[in-house]
Amino acid sequence: MTEETTTQNNEEEMEEKWKPTKVDGSPLGPEEEQVMEGLREVYDPEIGMSIIELGLVRKIILEPDRANIKMMLTTPFCPMAGVIVSSTQEKVEEVTGLPTEVDLLLDRWDPSFMESPYLF
After folding, report:
1. In total, how many domains does the chain have?
2. Cβ contact 36:20 at 8 Å
3. For position 91, which CATH number holds?
4. Spatial CA neighbour of 100 closest among 53, 68, 75, 55
5. Which DSSP symbol is given to 57?
6. Which of 25, 115, 32, 42 has the alpha carbon at shortest distance from 85?
7. Fewer CB within 10 Å: N-end or C-end of the chain?
């Protein structure tokens, strides 16, 4: 395997690691992509990066009558958790027009979840 092929494979693996999915693990559809683009405007106030850039959003679930976001925080006891969760909920409701619930996952965040882990 050439160095170029190895680099390309590593980049593809990293890209797959941070990307949110539907609840069944399948790639996002157009509606979920719209939600994701809207969530690029929600920032972690301490780090100054969007929750999408940080890879905090793990699942986007859209149903006809509600939306659910499953996300993690960069630290288990993030002092800005309330702000981040409420901003996420407000943005999804704005984009979808649906009542939204945000569930915090207990997963441990790692910089490799970021869109561009080289930035951290």
Report:
1. 1
2. yes
3. 3.30.300.130
4. 68
5. E
6. 42
7. N
